[in-house]
Amino acid sequence: MNIFENPIFITQKRLAHRAGVLAPILIAALIGLSLLSGLIAYLADPGDFSFRSPQEAGKVFYGWTIGVEILLLVIGGFSKISRTLAEERKAGLWDSNCLTPLKPAQIVAGYWLGSGLREFFMAAILAGTGLVICALAKLPLALWPGTQILILSTALFFGLLASLVGMAFQKPQTGILLIGVLVVFYMPSLAFSKFTVTNFLLPVYSIANLFSGGDNSDRDWSGWPEIFGLSVPPVLLSLALQFALEIFLWRAAVRKTANPCQPLLLRWEAIAIFALLIVSQHALVWNTWHGAFGLSNNHSYQNGVEDDTLLAVTHCGTILIGVMILAFASPLPERVRLEALRAGGGNLRMIFSRSAVSLALALAAVASIASLTQFIFSFSDEGTVWAVAAANLFIFFLMFPLLLEFCRLRFKRRALGFVALWLFVLCLLPLFFLQMALWLAPALIVVGGVPLGEALRLSFVGCCRNWLAVGVYSLAFVFLMLLATLPIGLGWIALLPLCFLSSYAAYLDMFEASLEVLEAAPAAGR
Amino acid sequence: MSNPALVIEHLRVDFPDVVAVNDLTLTVGAGDVCGLIGPNGAGKTTTMRAICGLQECTRGSVRVSGYEIAGEPDELKRQLGFMPDFCPTYEQLTASEFLDHFARAYDVPNRAKRIEECLELTWLTEKTNALCEELSRGMKQRLVLAKTLLPDPKVLLLDEPASGLDPLGRIELRKILLQLREAGKAVLISSHILTELSGFCNTAAIMERGRLVTFGTIAELGQKMGRRQMSVKWRADGDRALEILKSANVKNLETTNLGATFDYDGDTNALDELLKTLVVQGVRISEWRGTGDDLEQIFLQSGAKELM
Hints:
A: mainly alpha; 2 strands; about 75% helix; globular; B: Rossmann fold; four-stranded antiparallel sheet
């Protein structure tokens, strides 16, 4: 059946039109036109702008266009698809559709491609504007199709993930929570997309990083990394991995549509996808570590300790995603679950001996050893900070599959949402330590003139010594963040300056006196 | 029983803490309307969901017009219509668009005509272009019934179809069900409001705590439950009628205004003979009703009421 004849797609299209597509399209057109008019204004009178060439101006304006496009298509699409599916499941419409002779693949495809149509229309308008910007700014011809393919492929990947989330979780918010978790985990990688070349999120990062070099016209994602001696274009590698993951997710989504919480995958599929992630990432990181990655700015990472530790953390994150996928799509044989049901609940021995828990734990151990190898090589003073983060991740490795499987076997299925909440809390832990190192570092560098590495260390140590005040401040700030977000984010207008001011006040309290003493000491010595 | 359209054998459904359906064996023939009766939590809805594959069975088999869900799910889905106890509709679609969605999904030939027929059958023609959110609860219920009837299924599973309907809606639903019965459909209908089933069920299955307590035609069940309570009314010759009844050894005979109620231990044939005797003896009978055939009576006597 052609997708345009798919009843679910047609209905979703009708619903999108009934909810109104004209207003969103006009909003997208307005954003696009404002960016386009910025470029036109520059071309008309370059003296009013600080850009050095039309290409540079074009890159900035096109960068904004695709940024909004990503936001709409990836984040908006994910949210819409998972929400639609969760709501239709709750309303009983999912069951009604499953009772029709439609094939599971047709049902999934209908929701996957139909639910986010409004976001797609908006993104299409912006893509059109982007094309005009590229043409006016005389940007390279391949840039537009390249970026659009990357955006679309990522949106499709996320859409499929959203379908699974919508089918598995009762509440639509859980889907948003899950994507939040992914983003939190990949936050450190956002600034260093070169290292996350095999991550399925690469397209978003590479686009975000595309113009970050300012006058650097080389595109990061056009480098040629080596995997076991073979040169592979990172974009192709990323797309191939995304494609593999999409097949995996597709199979997961369509196998048991009538009851999506049932075990979705055969054991070998889960192992294969995990192996693919771990091997490619490990090989790539190894090569990058030894300078084999053809980076455009010719940095060498052989001796950079910070970069090595970062690689390890990135590596860790990717492996973690592998474990999450493995555990999420648990290869638990159906009969084990039925036996657990008949027995009136699971028992430990059966769960360990016959379910996927032991396999997940074994793979988590392999992943942890691989990560630890990296840490041992990169251990240094700064490494202590990362070691704490790694310990958290390690605990998470063990906790997640175990919790998930237990919840499946021993508790009700809606406990999955509860697990996702814990997952989120656990994700925040390593980030909190990272934040401690980053919080006062800018003030130390800019105001105190402290070198980068030392600034990070001092910030972390300062926060540790003032743990009570920092703890109270963090809690208060979380509360203020929520408060500021409630009035459609307008509260941030007041909160952001407050945030900077409070950072500066904290810096003065913690370091100003100490730095003065430090500065005075050599002077007195002289 | 007529040609069996729905055959359930040794069906068992487990939930983590409870056996929802336990060893259920049931057959519904074409042209039969079977009432699935039981208190809340008896396993009626789970049984229906298991029949159509929405609920996974621990063991047992379900055949719909000879097709099994595991073997030929597509064929089975075309033969089966399920109407849940709530009304899942796309609120922002019109009634005809909602039906069009499912007509496409079932690949119904001559879609527009069939949608029109189903709307007419459920008295919703006037609401063709109304949004689902504008429909009343009863109308939504009828719309979902129309959706269920779209592919012209041989077997219908109706879960509490009259809940939330006003008296007029219930009368309309009864008429529709009688039409379906006449059209030779096999209907399994669940309810815990027994009076609403009495009008159109010819067989009944009583469930309690996931188990089938009893199953059979209404007459068989009435007999199985023992003594039958009868009510008779006459226009004249009441004394003669009372004499005949007394001579027939009826029990608990109580006279009312131009009539009487009594308990009778004999089978259906003996009861027919008693009526014949009354008529032959010149008693002008205006009503002859077996209140023992009432589903409510059967249910109360079955003992499946502990959970109520």
